[in-house]
Amino acid sequence: MSRKASGQRHIQPSSRSRILLRTIAAFKFVKALLLVMAGAGVLHLVHQDVASLAERMVETFHMDPGNPYISHALSRVANLTPKQLHGIGIVAFIYAGLFLLEGIGLWSLKRWGEWLTVVITGSLLPVEIYESLHRPTVPRVAVLLMNAAIVVYLVRRIRSKA
Q1: Residues 107 and 68: beta-carbon distance below 8 Å
Q2: What value does the mean pLDDT take over residues 120-126?
Q3: C-alpha count within 13 angstroms, C-beta hemisphere, residue 102
Q4: Residue 162: which pLDDT band, with cuts at 50, 70 and 90?
Q5: With contact defined as beta carbons under 8 Å apart, do 74 and 54 qualify?
Q6: 159 to each of 114, 115, 156, how far by Cα in Å?
Q7: Dihedral sign (CA 156, 160, 161, 162)
Q8: Cα–Cα distance between 46 and 21 in angstroms, integer?
Q9: What is the pTM of this model?
Q10: pLDDT band for position 99 (50/70/90)?
Q11: 41 band by pLDDT with thresholds 50, 70 and 90
């Protein structure tokens, strides 16, 4: 039975909705690209002396190695094993793939893209809220607010079509 015969019909999104959906898709594509670059960068570090590289970065950017935050970051980086670096790189690629899939679905104006984005982005909101409350930074809070707005918009859009 076709969709039209079953009483369901495909409603083309308005011009405003198309622009919003494609803007969200572009945001997802940018996140995917950044994660691919981060994953590749981390995998490149597997056979490097990560602690020395981190110390050189601190010197290059004229950061205070005695700063408790910098000191803590340096000690954490120094303790990363090649296995952990592989894991971080693989997770970055997996998330990049998910963001790419969301972006493709949204750019194509597919309902599954909206659902997928609500599920994935919505499932990450508790982690983003926790991080924003415990380690607030302007970019972290901005991404949280943007992701929350995306989920609210898409949920309202999905419910209005049902």
Answers
A1: no
A2: 95
A3: 30
A4: low
A5: yes
A6: 11, 11, 5
A7: positive
A8: 38
A9: 0.80
A10: very high
A11: very high
